[in-house]
Amino acid sequence: MTARGHGRDPLHLAADGTVTAAHGPDADQFAQARLFHITADDAAGMLQTIQTANGSEPERARVPAGHRHAT
């Protein structure tokens, strides 16, 4: 699998997302790196954790009045 890196330098990826080859001036930054994918919900949770760890209040999701459900 080939993916585009910085500029026109291609990255070559293994099936598990590990960079197997990189070319160009920043190639050493990608050597044996492993790319990953997380869901939108997991990303939101991760970003909220980082924001809270930095002393910021996490943003609260706003639910329109007609869409609130009792639990």
Jot down its keywords.
single chain, 71 residues, alpha+beta, 3-stranded antiparallel β-sheet, 2 helices, 3 strands, elongated
Write a structural description.
The chain is of the alpha+beta class. It has one domain (1-57). Helices cover 25% and strands 15% of the residues. The protein contains 2 helices and 3 strands. The protein has a 3-stranded antiparallel sheet with strand order 1-2-3. Strand 2 (10-13) and strand 3 form a beta hairpin. Residues 52-71 are annotated as: Disordered.
- From N to C, what is the helix and strand string? EEEHH
The Cα radius of gyration reads 19 Å
Distance between the termini: 46 Å
Give the low-pLDDT segments.
Answer: none
For the largest sheet, list the strands in their spatial order. 1-2-3
Count of strand segments: 3
Major sheet attributes: 3 strands, antiparallel
What's the structural blueprint in terms of helices and strands?
Layout: E1 2-4, E2 10-13, E3 19-22, H1 27-30, H2 40-53
Antiparallel strand pairs: 1-2, 2-3
Structure described in brief:
With 71 residues, this protein is an alpha+beta fold. The chain contains 2 helices and 3 strands; from the N terminus they run βββαα.
